[in-house]
Amino acid sequence: MSNTDFTIAKDNDGKSILQFLAGELKPRGKFLTPFNIISIPIIILGLIIIVIRFWKGLGSVTNLTQEVPWGLWIGFDVVTGVAFAGGAYVLTFMVYILNVQKYHSIVRITVLNGFLAYVFYAGALLLDLGRPWNVVNPIIGNSFGTSSVLFLVAWHFLLYMIAQLIEFSPAVAEWLGAKRARKILSGMTVAAVIFGITLSTLHQSGLGALYLMAKDKIHPLWYSEFIPVLFFVSSIFAGLSMVIFEGSISHRVFFDQISEENHKSHKGIMVGLSKICAVAMFAYFFLQVLVFVHGKRWDLLGTPMGYWYLMEIFGFVLLPMLLFFYSYRHKNVNMIKVAAIITMLGVILNRLNVTVIGFRWDSAIRYIPTWMELVVTLAVIFTEIWIFRWVINRMPVLRESPSWVNVKE
Amino acid sequence: MTINRKDFFKVLGITGASVVLGKDLNAAQKRDDKVEFSGILYDSTRCAGCQTCESSCAEANGLPAPTETIQAGVLRKTDESHRTVVNAFNSSKGEAYLKKQCMHCNDPACTAACLTQAMYKTKEGPVIWRGEKCMGCRYCMVSCPFDIPKFEYHSSNPKIEKCNMCYSRLNEGKIPACVENCPAEALLFGKRRDLVKEARKRIGENPGQYVDHIYGEHEAGGTGFLYLSAVPFEELGLNPSIQTESYPGLSKGFLYSVPTIFVLWPAILLGIREATKNNHLNAEENE
Which residue has the higher pLDDT, B5 or A156? Predict the structure, then answer.
């Protein structure tokens, strides 16, 4: 695999672009892998459920109620998925703004992961819209609801997807052998990065700000005027934990694509990321404590929701933070992976506590997602992984850029 | 159709001028017209729980006629086919009734939440829903502190259902159907300012009959629908924890910070990038 890039670039000169694309679209490698055997039926089932959803209405496949209008598709797919995609802005900040070149080798895969996450999880938003044919209204037309946080989030999703596409586009140009286009596109990277970080700051916090008006509906342990700040800070370590998790998997799955040099630097990158995670989590923990004390919420701790809150804060923030600190000190990569997984579970827990579990916690009929909502969520994730794998196997994401690319950028 | 350069610029100029002038004219007009918000005053002590408002609402809005009857202690809710419901409560002063529907807030959470201006506070006061703009995101439902907008979950072309104070009837010069048909005169339509005065007058003339509180005068920053009652409002199922500031104020701080961040962030980021430009030269030493 490692020397196909050169052949692709050469082949491209001989073949027409359509022939080349047709060849690239064909599946490669073994077809009946365990991942394919599990994911294909779920994706097909998911598609069937989506057809029913548009035909018979949202109520036919979801358990959403008049009191709980946003469920798993928003609370997990969109709100949690976007937090996990935060790694892209954090890494581009470190590499292009702080000029820490150590992380340069994982920027592309992180940006690709982020871009696909936005496309698919924001795409999942379309499934949740009752009248999706009007989705262009806030973008074009005369219906700008500028006082809405959701208006801001929608615009930012769109613009950030474009920014990420520009950040990733040099890899596409290298794949197509388009030398001139690559030069132009890579010249736009820094502008896209700066724009992208600004957008990310605002919409990561914006996702939390969406819930500010639901003051009477969210459990007081999770509602405060600081939700936007908490969402922003937690998106830093949510995104980086995803980078660690995804990195350790692709490191194994796409082993043959990674150069000797990048194999060697893998451990150093993991250790460096664990330090940043630990510091960000410390800041987050401190903020949570401040919000708690400031809100005088001691009497809420003795309730079942109070225990649930303590479990989130101590079990899924403080514990992985200490693990990150410990494994950074002892350069223990396995421990870093464990910490990353606990952190990710904690972020899922936190986002669901705000959006689903703590939302209308006092209502008589609780919202519990149907199996169909779960299947669609899984289908979205699996489809994303399919595309992710397709791109990595074809474009220079993990492997080195073709030889015609100037190494110094 | 062909268009040459000269024509193109001509059209461009005319369009530009009309956009600029048009805006000015609109703005000037707006400053002149001083339409006051209309509202409805509901006097719970007069309500007999006859449900005439429910059936006349259904008739006026083309919804199925209500079939459920009122039973004390059973809480009915508005839904996608009932824009208003009346409930009976065993209060400290015997059985009492309360009508529920959209509160038509002065500064509504739903319209601030709506990213397409489908939920819209008209200058006359009613909060209306405009289907041609709505994308069905249901953020209005998440935001409304009174849980009023309802969504048709079992439709492929779902609508948001809620009371719109019979906006089309108002435009025809009529009054809302529920007010017109109420046999007990428990409902009164008028300018919100006059309704508050009327409510105060009733409390002042019969202090024993009413609690000294007009629900909706300050709740959620003031609502178009106002309530009078003989018993504290929480006995009638109204949420006492509704804040007196308007709900859109809760996200205002965040929204105000957006332009600041949009201007400052890129400048700061560029600055840091310049400052750290030579970092990679001593990167080896740091490793």
Answer: A156
Tokens 């660690």 belong to which residue?
A244
- CA-to-CA distance for A406 and A33, rounded, in angstroms? 37
Q: Is residue B287 part of a domain?
A: no
B133 touching chain A per CB within 8 A: yes
Closest CA to B171 of B205, B131, B132, B124: B124
Estimate to the nearest angstrom the gap between the alpha carbon of B219 and the chain centroid. Answer: 13
Task: For residue B280, name the pLDDT band (cuts at 50, 70, 90).
Answer: low
What is the complex's ipTM, to 2 decimals?
Answer: 0.89
User: Per the structure block, which two tokens stand in for A146?
Assistant: 């500028």
If phi over 0 gives left and psi between -120 and 50 gives alpha, with beta otherwise, what is residue B49? Answer: left
Please report whether residue B165 resides in a domain. yes
pTM as predicted:
0.89
The set of residues, in sequence order, having a beta carbon less than 8 Å from that of B19 and lying 6+ positions away, is none
Number of C-beta neighbours around residue B264 at 10 A: 11
Residue A198 has its nearest CB partner, among B137, B155, B266, at B266
**Stretch (H or E) spanning A251:** helix A227-253
Residue B189 is assigned to a structural domain of this protein: yes
Q: What percent of chain B has pLDDT over 70?
A: 85
Q: What CA–CA distance (Å, rounded) separates A19 from A97? A: 40
Element (H, E) at B91: strand B85-91
Burial of A213 (0-12, 13-18, 19+ CB in 10 A): buried
| Least confident range of A30-44, A212-226, A267-281, B159-173 | A30-44
Confidence of residue B68 (pLDDT cuts 50, 70, 90): confident
Pair of tokens at residue A298 = 């001691």
Burial label, B111 (beta-carbon count in 10 A; 0-12, 13-18, 19+): buried
Q: What is the CATH number of the domain that holds B101?
A: 3.30.70.20
Determine the length of chain B: 287
Query: Which of the 8 DSSP states describes residue A402?
Result: P
Q: Are strands B38-43 and B225-228 parallel, antiparallel or unpaired?
A: parallel
Tell me the C-alpha to C-alpha distance, in Å, between residue B213 and each of B202, B209, B230. 11, 12, 10
- Would B161 be classed as within a structural domain? yes
Residues 6+ apart with CB under 8 A from A404: A9, A179
Domain count for chain B = 1
CA of A224 vs chain B CAs: smallest distance (Å) = 10
CB < 8 Å from B in window 79-98 of A: 93, 96-98
Containing domain of residue B55, as a range? 34-265
| DSSP per-residue letters across B40-75 | EEEETTT-----HHHHHHHHHTT-PPP-PPP-TT--
> Distance between CA B112 and CA B110 in Å, rounded?
5
- The C-alpha of A255 sits at a distance from chain B's nearest C-alpha, in angstroms, of 24
Tell me the pLDDT tens digit for each residue of A220-252. 999 999 999 999 999 999 999 999 999 989 888
Question: Cβ distance A137 to A404 under 8 Å?
Answer: no
Is the pLDDT at A4 greater than 70, yes or no?
no
> Looking at residues A293-314, what average pLDDT do you find?
91
Minimal Cβ distance to B135: which of A59, A66, A135 = A135
Residues of A in contact with B107 (CB under 8 A): none
pLDDT band of A383, cuts 50, 70, 90: very high
Among A231, A243, A223, CA closest to A200: A231
pLDDT score recorded for residue B84: 96
Residue with token string 């000190």: A329
What is the DSSP code (8-state) at residue B1? Answer: -
Contacts of A236 (CB under 8 A, 6+ apart): A86, A90, A276, A277, A280
Cβ count within 10 A of residue A134: 20
Domains and CATH numbers, chain A: 57-259+266-394 (1.20.1630.10)
